[in-house]
Fold this protein.
Amino acid sequence: MRASLGQLEKWDKRYVWHPFTQMKEWNAAPVVMIKKGEGNELIDTKGRRYIDGVSSLWCNVHGHRVKKIDDAIRRQLGQIAHSTFLGLSHPPAVILAKKLIEAAPTGMSRVFYSDSGSASVETAIKMAYQYWQNKGKKQKKQFVKLKNAYHGDTLGAVSVGGIDLFHDVYGPLLFKTIKADAPYYYRDTFKGSEAEYAEHCAKKIEKILQKHHRRICALVIEPLMQGAAGMLKQPKGYLARVRAITRKYNVLMIADEVATGFGRTGRMFACQNENVSPDILCLAKGITGGYLPLSATLVTEEIYKAFLADYGRFKHFFHGHTYSANPLACAAAIASLDIFKNEKTLEKLQPKIKFLTSALASLTKMPHVGDVRQAGFMAGIELVQDKAKKTPYHLREKMGFRVAGAARQKGVMIRPLGNVIVLMPSLSITASELKKICGVVQSCIQKETE
Ligand SMILES: *Cc1c(COP(=O)(O)O)cnc(C)c1O
């Protein structure tokens, strides 16, 4: 069906409901429609080009229209687009599982597929719960979650989430959890070194586990960086400490690397920065290079084994999705992992991380930049109304969106989180594109906050 640009915009506003969007506002504004991608650029229906500064919401890895991934999907399309994974298997899912386990932190042993980050977390929650039920520790039912956590939008994932703005309204629908304080150095009253802060924050977790471990099933954490909360970075050593505490108290650790996985922090997985092996690892976003919806929940052999029994004891995992392990998505994921290996993606990323660090350092002096946080190729710039008092802009002022809107006019596509400007380009971004992103963001912050 062909339609004019005017018609498309009219139909968008007539028939579509966009995610995380106040549609009243949307319907009153012009619509930008992306028609094409090329390398690290997005091209809209009017032919305007934008550098993709947040990698199409944190999922694109090697750029758009990468020949090797395009070809892999086409080849798979020549075989079959989809066949169920319930009671049947297929080559791409098996090959991908082997590659994921080889790339993952040591100890990960089995791969369970689903189709979104939220679904990978739901899977992890149900697995952790049923693990203890199967083991006969029936009282271990509660989850520990962190303040400001984000694990997706389905109800289980929201239950272990801690972003009040997104989650409060659904309160009555959620299961009960134990909420622990999480690191946020910039807005914490704690004064001391990074190492001391790591210890201070880890102690808070230990207090909870010490008291309640007999009824705690698992702790859920975004390792290194709480993404959706506004890129809240954990102090060095915190993750390793929390891991040691969960082991000490026999509580499972679910590491949600939906955002941090696949090179974003400079290592393949964030846990590897602190030599941490979780019990359960959630992967999505970057898994297919940002091409197709796919997710995976990786577990240790210990967890997997707790579900093995004679059929009639019904200890198996009653969970799965129609599109679990979609073959096209698996083919894209294999191609993406092959690129990591053959093109030394992570090696080539290191100087770009250094450049980003120095570009961010020059922002800290700006009068309305309160804090700058970075873990590898994930960065957040927190804007404040009053730097001395750390007073945030009121969300109604939409300062983050104003800066993002101005950047869009200058050919850089970003999406903020409240007052935090997020930079999370594809790992394939070139040095000059990165330079442009940083320059545009700096001048737009300057312009909008003065
Ligand atoms: C994006 C995200 C999710 C949810 O993934 P979806 O694919 O959007 O469902 C879960 N956890 C983290 C840490 C995320 O950043």
In short: The mean pLDDT is 97. Residues 219 and 253 are 5 Å apart (CA to CA). The longest strand covers residues 378-386.
